[in-house]
Design brief:
By secondary structure, this protein is an alpha+beta fold. 29% of the residues lie in helices and 35% in strands. The protein has 2 helices and 6 strands. It has helices at 18-34, 81-98; strands spanning 2-9, 37-42, 47-52, 55-60, 69-77, 104-110. The chain has a 4-stranded antiparallel beta sheet. Strands 3-4 form a two-stranded antiparallel ribbon. A hairpin with a 2-residue loop joins strand 3 and strand 4. Helix 1 (18-34) runs antiparallel to helix 2.
Length: 119
C-alpha cells in the first residue's frame, strides 16, 4: 500500500538547520535503499484553485491565515499502516532532535489508485 507523507510546520519557521537537512537526506537515502521510499521532495509556495458558487478563482500562496504549511512530501510503499506511522514518527524525531522548539506535524495519507490492469 502506498502512503503520502506531508511534513507541516509554521510558515515563518525559517530555514531548517544544516544538521536536520543532512539527517533527512541520510534518512531518504536509507529509505530508497530499503525500497520503501518511491519519491520525495520539498514543496514551494502553493497556488490554490477553487470552485465557489460556479466561479473558478485562484490565489497565490503563502496564505496569511495559514498556521502551518506543507514543506515537503514523501511517497512510500509500505506493508501496513503501522509501518507508515513509524516512518512519520521517525521524521518527527529528527525534527525534535535537530530543530528543537519547532512545532512540526506529519500527515500520512493512504493513496487509492486505479485497479491494477489485468496481465
Amino acid at each position: 500500500m502506498r502512503y503520502m507523507m506531508f511534513v507541516k510546520m509554521d510558515p515563518n519557521a525559517g530555514p531548517p538547520p544544516a544538521a536536520l537537512i543532512e539527517a533527512v537526506e541520510a534518512e531518504i537515502k536509507q529509505q530508497y535503499a530499503d525500497g520503501v521510499l518511491l519519491d520525495a521532495d520539498g514543496l514551494g509556495p502553493a497556488v490554490e484553485i477553487r470552485l465557489t458558487a460556479g466561479e473558478v478563482t485562484h490565489v497565490d500562496g503563502p496564505f496569511a491565515e495559514a498556521k502551518e504549511v506543507a514543506g515537503g512530501f514523501s511517497l512510500f510503499e509500505v506493508r501496513s499502516q503501522d509501518e507508515a506511522i513509524e516512518l512519520g514518527r521517525r521524521m518527527i524525531q529528527l525534527h525534535e532532535e535537530l530543530w528543537p522548539g519547532q512545532d512540526v506535524a506529519v500527515e500520512m495519507r493512504p493513496l487509492f489508485g486505479p485497479p491494477t490492469p489485468a496481465e
